[in-house]
Design goal:
By secondary structure, this protein is mainly β. It contains no helices and 11 strands.
Length: 113
């Protein structure tokens, strides 16, 4: 089983990025599990950013509500995090998890002011 988060990079404040979380080796389990995106900024604790359930219900941290959108494509075993109107305080390493069991390596997002 492998979870790969990708799509991070350097962007100016106000810009957008789309992160992907690709699950390999999970088969149909991916579609039966809740997927979460987290982030951890330097010197700070990890923060839960967004959640999408198997029924596609979504929840967001207050800090990203209205700017970020989480989604999933079960046919591709992939989850996404669309991030708009990025702010310097969004700078962090972003991680995904599937079912609170499988974790991927993070992808770095840097937002310049």
């Amino acid at each position: 089983v492998q979870l790969q988060a990708c799509g991070g990079g350097l962007v100016q404040a106000g810009g957008s990025l789309r992160l992907s979380c690709v699950a390999s080796g999970l088969g149909s389990i991916f579609g039966l599990a809740t997927v979460r995106w987290h982030r951890q900024a330097p010197g700070k604790q990890r923060e839960l950013v967004a959640v999408v359930t198997t029924g596609r219900s979504t929840t967001y941290a207050d800090s990203v509500t209205g700017r970020f959108t989480i989604s999933r494509d079960n046919a591709k075993n992939t989850a996404y995090l669309q991030m708009n109107t990025l702010k310097p305080e969004d700078t962090a390493v972003y991680y995904c998890d599937v079912g609170a069991t499988y974790w991927g390596q993070g992808t770095l997002v840097t937002v310049s002011s």
